[in-house]
Amino acid sequence: MSRTPLLILGGGTTAEDRARLEAAHASVFAKDFDELAAMDAETRAQVRAVAYRGHYRFDGTGMDLLPNLEVIANFGVGYDQIVVADATARGVKVTNTPDVLNDDVADLAVAMLLAQCRNMVEGDARVRRGEWPQKGELPLNRKMSGNKAGIVGLGRIGREIADRLAAFKMEIHYTSRSEKETPGWTYHGNDVVSLASAVDFLVVAIVGGPETVNTVSREAIDALGPRGVIVNISRGTTIDEDAMLDALEQGRIAGAGLDVFVGEPKVNPRFFALDQVHLQPHQGSGTVETRRAMAMLQLENVTACLEGKPLKTPVN
Ligand code: NAP
Known about the structure:
Blueprint: E1 6-9, H1 15-24, E2 27-30, H2 33-38, H3 41-46, E3 49-52, H4 60-63, E4 71-74, H5 84-89, E5 93-95, H6 102-117, H7 120-128, H8 132-135, E6 148-152, H9 156-167, E7 171-175, E8 186-187, H10 192-198, E9 201-204, H11 218-224, E10 229-232, H12 241-249, E11 255-258, E12 277-279, H13 288-306
Parallel strand pairs: 1-2, 1-3, 3-4, 4-5, 6-7, 6-9, 7-8, 9-10, 10-11, 11-12
């Protein structure tokens, strides 16, 4: 029986979540892989489970620091930073935290689309700065309800977004690797260009990782056209960001609402000069309720592993 079977890895772990993990299992903590590598070999050899929270790559090199590792329990549904093939090759299981965050991420996608169409940030600023009496009403903005929406990736979160946008009287189109059962929504196979040319709003909800880089290509962005708005809550890498910036700067699309960026938390400063984009700091799942549910699911996976029970939400 190892004395400290759990490694809490990642400086982003909150004090509350760390205390809950430590109360459940004898633990060691490392802020990052440098701290992990500096740990003595005997301590590292005791670790059977990692509670991981980070957006930096976790590959075989990191895994090899932990010779008795059984599970990496990721905090978050997106595990594109964990090289699952490396884990599988070492007999290590990976888990994530699906479903519990769907509502919040979908809510944020809709909120960004509303904020973008209705120019809400500028409206708030006008009232707050006391400029309303001199400047008067905002320039008329854009109706959101009743447009056509295209969901790139009708997975768990994409589905929640589509359900919400359907309630806004929108016609729903989507891409996915397989056709889904829907209330008559239009399936475009995996053809994002076809999807973009059919809709006003393109909402991106596919997984990140090497297989989906630039799924929303320059061609797809052009196909969306000058009335088109892009919303991205997936990963920055799923859109050709340079092509999107070119199109925004040249007015070839109308706007964007973005929660995720290439190279975040650094954001390409070209975005800051654009009025018609709404920017958020990757806060899709960032409510008290959902972050607690994610932490509980991560802990359940760790506990299941350490007690030899089936994992709650395995990835591999
Ligand atoms: P999901 O249910 O697995 O759905 C993902 C979608 O991506 C599905 O439509 C799936 O296609 C598609 N897909 C998966 N692998 C693909 C591939 N290799 N090539 C093309 N399409 C592929 O995932 P989810 O729970 O909805 O989460 C989606 C993503 O949202 C996460 O991976 C994460 O990156 C992101 N996310 C962001 C935040 C935030 O804070 N902004 C929070 C949570 C999640 P099929 O339908 O054909 O399987």
